[in-house]
């Protein structure tokens, strides 16, 4: 229970359905040490009290679980290291995999709970075979299945998403208002919860205790175009705020952490026909999906960013030379994903998620873009 309207309505729905519920708020970090306004940080006192008030209204036990050490190690430090290596991390997906459905699910099981329920907008369906399918939410504007690709069959067997079949405005906020929840109109959280104002570079500078090193901004032909004040201040696809005067629009097409350079090029240079992804996790039953992959290139749909429309793809196992092109060493299983239509601004470090209609097949970390 984050103290927001989604988790509060989740608790209400399950309590009303006859489940024995325990409300838990995770304390993830100390806001003061991250430089974030304590009133806007995850697990701040106001949010904890909001969650406690809802639990009291529902008559369910409530507790605060200290996850600061795990969050520091698995999310915050991993986030900083990824940027320093020249990639763009997806901390929400990592947090879901390691913290919410890792540490918190383990805690729930230790308490003897059969399920962990959250306010995510996604669905879990049990199939006739007995396996489970992670699916998109009915409310496509709020669907969060992209961030949940790391859930395995074992975890899906113990997860409930009561909001997956509801709409945020038409159902969830209405239920909260009708039952007098004080957080019924509370705004949704936005951005990275532990980074003040989404200023990643300043956050990392403060954390490391030093300024980011300056370096060259270069063209695709290696011509020096200017200087930067830290390569991680830039993202692939960025156009504005480059600090370079040019006769035509230029875009960030690459970031090389080792050389400490930022490469600018034309918009056409941003287009990629394929990508290599590692750290792969199958949400669908792995043996079945692996068998389909081994038989022939797997036809599916993919997203390389949240709220992107599904893109038709062909998937096969990546070859070692393809993996070597990435900015960081390959981890775990690696796949090559070829798009039917070239994609703009494929960003190493971000998540790529495969779908079969509404069903999430799995996902992984983008290692690098690849040619057609």
Automatic annotation (TrEMBL):
Q: Which residues form a coiled coil?
A: none
E.C. designation(s): 2.8.1.13
Residues that hold ATP according to the record: 26, 119
Its keywords, alphabetically, are:
ATP-binding, Cytoplasm, Disulfide bond, Nucleotide-binding, RNA-binding, Transferase, tRNA processing, tRNA-binding
Q: Where is this site: Interaction with tRNA?
A: 120, 350
Enumerate the catalysed reactions: S-sulfanyl-L-cysteinyl-[protein] + uridine(34) in tRNA + AH2 + ATP = 2-thiouridine(34) in tRNA + L-cysteinyl-[protein] + A + AMP + diphosphate + H(+)
Cite the tRNA-specific 2-thiouridylase MnmA-like C-terminal domain residue spans from the record.
Answer: 274-366
Molecular function GO labels: ATP binding; tRNA binding; tRNA-uridine 2-sulfurtransferase activity
The record's region (Interaction with tRNA) falls at 142-144, 305-306
State the protein's name.
Answer: tRNA-specific 2-thiouridylase MnmA
What's the source species for this entry?
A: Enorma massiliensis
Q: Which gene encodes it?
A: mnmA
